[in-house]
TrEMBL record:
It catalyses: NAD(+) + ATP = ADP + NADP(+) + H(+). Belongs to the NAD kinase family. This is NAD kinase. It is found in: Cytoplasm. Keywords: ATP-binding, Cytoplasm, Kinase, NAD, NADP, Nucleotide-binding, Transferase. Its EC number is 2.7.1.23. GO terms for biological process: NAD+ metabolic process; NADP+ biosynthetic process. It comes from Desulfoplanes formicivorans. GO terms for molecular function: ATP binding; metal ion binding; NAD binding; NAD+ kinase activity. The keyword NAD applies. It comes from the Bacteria. Signal peptide: none annotated.
Length: 285
C-alpha cells in the first residue's frame, strides 16, 4: 500500500462496548502519530456511513465478518480500503485482532501492508410484467434466493447471457463472490474459490435429485434468475443481513459492480494460511 495515511475512519459495531472501548484506545494511538481519526458507529438502519468531513485514506472496522460485510456494502463506490479488527467469531474477512492491532497499524502507517481488490455483486430486480427495474443493490459475500418458512421446494429458471442453464428445484440458490465462497456457499457444498478471481459461484441448496451441480462462471455475461410458479414464499437475501420477498415471474439480474472492495492485508498475510487457521483446510499428521 503505497499511500501516505493522513485520515482514518474507525467504524464501530453498533451496541458493542468492547468495540467502543477498543476504538478509544486505537484513536488515541493514531492521534499520537499526527493522523486525523474519526469514529462512527455502524447502525443497521443507516444506508450510508458518515465517514467524516474529509474522505479517509482507509477505514478500520471493529467487529466481526458481519460488520465487515455491512460496511463494505455501504462504502462501495468510494474506493476506500478496509482493514478489519476481529471482535466476532470466525473473522475470515478481518486482518487483525484486539491483541495484535498495534503491530498491524504500525505496518499500515509504514506502508508495509498490501491491498487486494475483491469483486462485488450488483443486482437489479424486475417485477413480473415490468420492463423498468423495481430496485437494485449490492452484496459483498452472496445473494441468496431461497424458500420461506415452509419446507417446500421452489423452482428457479437460471440464465447466463442468452443461454438458459435450466431450472433448479431446490430450497434455494446461492450466488456468491470468491470472497463469499467461504461463507454460506461452502456450507451448501460449493467450492472454495481464490478471492482474486473474477468469477461468481452458483450453489444450489438441497437440489432435488441433484440435477444442478455447483457452477463457477466468469462475469462476461449477466446472470438472470426468474421465479417460476412455486405456491410458496420466495426471498432474496443480501449477505445474510437484508432481504425481501419475491413473487412468481420476478426476475433478478446479477453482474459485477463497477467498483471493487479493497481489503488491507499485513505483509505476512496468506489466503491458504488463513484457510488452515479457520478450519477450512485440515492438516493431518
Amino acid at each position: 500500500m503505497n499511500a501516505l495515511i493522513r485520515h482514518i475512519t474507525l467504524v464501530v459495531k453498533a451496541g458493542n462496548n468492547n468495540a467502543r472501548n477498543l476504538a478509544r484506545k486505537i484513536s488515541t494511538w493514531i492521534d499520537a502519530r499526527n493522523v486525523h481519526v474519526h469514529i462512527v458507529e455502524n447502525t443497521m438502519d443507516c444506508e450510508v456511513l458518515e465517514l467524516g468531513r474529509e474522505k479517509p485514506d482507509c477505514v478500520i472496522v471493529l467487529g466481526g465478518d458481519g460488520t465487515m460485510l455491512s460496511v463494505a456494502r455501504k462504502i462501495n463506490g468510494h474506493g476506500i480500503p478496509l482493514l478489519g479488527v476481529n471482535l466476532g467469531n470466525v473473522g475470515f474477512l478481518t486482518e487483525t485482532t484486539p491483541l495484535a492491532w498495534q503491530q498491524t497499524l504500525e505496518d499500515l502507517l509504514a506502508n508495509r501492508c498490501t491491498v487486494s481488490s475483491r469483486v462485488v455483486l450488483e443486482y437489479t430486480l424486475y417485477k413480473r410484467g415490468h420492463s423498468e427495474p423495481s430496485c437494485s443493490g449490492k452484496a459483498f459475500n452472496d445473494l441468496v434466493v431461497n424458500r420461506g418458512s415452509l419446507a417446500r421446494l421452489i423452482t428457479l429458471q437460471v440464465s447466463y447471457g442468452d443461454q438458459c442453464l435450466g431450472c433448479v428445484r431446490a430450497d434455494g440458490l446461492i450466488i456468491s463472490t470468491p470472497t463469499g465462497s467461504t461463507g454460506y456457499g461452502v456450507s451448501g457444498g460449493g467450492p472454495l474459490v481464490y478471492p482474486d478471481l473474477d468469477v461468481f459461484i452458483l450453489t444450489p441448496i438441497c437440489p432435488f435429485l441433484n440435477t444442478f451441480a455447483p457452477l463457477v462462471l466468469p462475469f462476461d455475461q449477466t446472470l438472470a434468475i426468474r421465479v417460476e410458479p412455486n405456491n410458496g414464499e420466495v426471498y432474496l437475501t443480501l449477505d445474510g443481513q437484508k432481504g425481501f420477498c419475491l413473487e412468481d415471474g420476478d426476475r433478478v439480474e446479477i453482474g459485477r459492480a463497477k467498483t471493487p472492495i479493497k481489503l488491507i492485508h499485513s505483509a505476512a498475510s496468506s489466503y491458504i494460511t488463513k484457510l488452515k487457521a479457520k478450519g477450512f483446510i485440515k492438516e493431518y499428521p
